[in-house]
Amino acid sequence: MAFTLIDLPYADLGEVISAETLSFHHGKHHKTYIDKMNAAIEGTAHDSAALEAVVAAARGSDQGLFNNAAQTWNHGFYWLSMSNDGGAPSADLAAKIDAAFGSMDELKAQLKARGAGHFASGWVWLAEKDGALSIEETHDGDTLADSGFNPLLVIDVWEHAYYIDHRNARPAYLDAVVEGKLNWAFASENLERGTTWVYPS
Length: 201
Ligand code: MN
Known about the structure:
Helix content is about 50%, strand content about 10%. It is mainly alpha-helical and about 200 residues long.
């Protein structure tokens, strides 16, 4: 079963992430990860597996497949982690944010600081484990898809995520995404479900 490119739920995210960025990041980068993964799993036992199982099986044993499978998952999750009208956290999520960070403003400040401080390429996550929230970082293509954490939101901090719109200014990209484009409704759904989001198949 070949995996497919998840549809974008928006044409652009205003001036924060332009249609041009998305044409490359979604239409080329994400698509290339999927195409390479599909080519690697065709005719193998992975061909009928869920993406999360492919990621877990490849971790530590097949770095090439792992990178493409994890990047497929991460980008699908990233597109849904943003919206033009991010809504508000559910009451449960808001309470957990206050418990872990003190306030939404402090969570936002920490997300921006961790993203700006992350060395080279990677991902910054808001995640839940055993009922508590934390900010996590993964490097390069690594993922929380098979980690034991329940990811709630993710931000891509690879240069290809922001270079067209913000040039080298990763902090400007992070500020704009965190302040205006995070999808709190999606984060609330992920918390409510209590199990890791599944890439559509
Ligand atoms: Mn990316």
